[in-house]
Design brief:
This protein has 6 helices and 14 strands. The protein is an alpha+beta fold. It binds zinc ion (ZN).
Length: 363
Amino acid sequence: MTIKTNKRAKYTYLTLQLLPTEKEREALQTTWNNYKEACNTFSRTKYWKLAREKHMDVSACKKEYLKSARALAQRLLHGVYEISIRHTVKMAYKRQESDKKLALIVFGEYDEKNIKHLTIPYLRKPTFNIDFAKKMCCLDLVDGFQHIAFTLLEGIPEPPASWEAIEVYLQPIYGTWYLTLMFPNPTANMDVSPDTNIVGIDRGEINIATTYSLDKGAKRYSAEDYSLPCEGGTKDDYHKNLFAKDVIVAKEIVERESPDTIFVLEDLHFNKLRKGWSYRNFSDAFIYLAALRHQCVFFCDPRNTSRTCPKCGEVTNTKRNRDEHRFICRSCGYGEKEIVNDDENAAENIYLRGRKELLKDDV
Ligand SMILES: [Zn+2]
């Protein structure tokens, strides 16, 4: 039986670090600034329309700001950006809608408070081209095409030659330019049977990851054990350091399991950042490394994974003791005698939930 993966695992992402010259850096920055202005102006238009449909107060949006994506693309960039502006703004409001909210969305820098982190999508060729042999990418920037050198991040291998990026996303994070490539995931539709090796993974800050499988039980990958010396004191250095740790842990997890393994992760909204820690960084690197080993990732419902008792199924308001990190079930007493680590408990619940979902037509 072929599994139904959800939307997130249909694609796998690879992030490259750009190495622009001074002149190229200027072209990137101007493009990004103009793109930001275009998206923020178009965002007001979009908000004005949505708010009017809901009969809300639209006085915050002055009429002179109401511009079409086409007019903005032509004034600030060039025509080819119209589709990207539409896409960026539409996706942001769609996410809001699924959270049943409506507020004016403002785009800007990574980590800026109350700001939606802006990335520029290049949605179709020939607006981008990636050459792995030469380690050069070509992007359609504000003043035309630019060829920019890139490097792969530490520990991340090149994709197989047969993989072709279908979209790319450009973004600056703390002064470094990144390009994220989107590939169709060759392991998105893998076969699953009751014998399939299934591994649940919980993500956290104290433990970068905690895994659980029937064969191997629970294993914690504690952030302390993976402390790498951070080479500088800037936010950029810190961010790169966190990402490097994520890659090491992701690699260890995928290499510990056989090909055809299915990993279960929680389907979290990853637009919120906590102390520069991003769920998205880990899951993107993880899906990519797993796909290279012919393993796949399945996303499960994240609700109450840390509050559910794997023995009796009761959802309890556990008195989570921050120092102890124990899970205790108030209903059946699981965890009262033996010590059950809360992250290991969550990983087991994710495993159980994933297995149930994956095999629901099979048992
Ligand atoms: Zn219980």
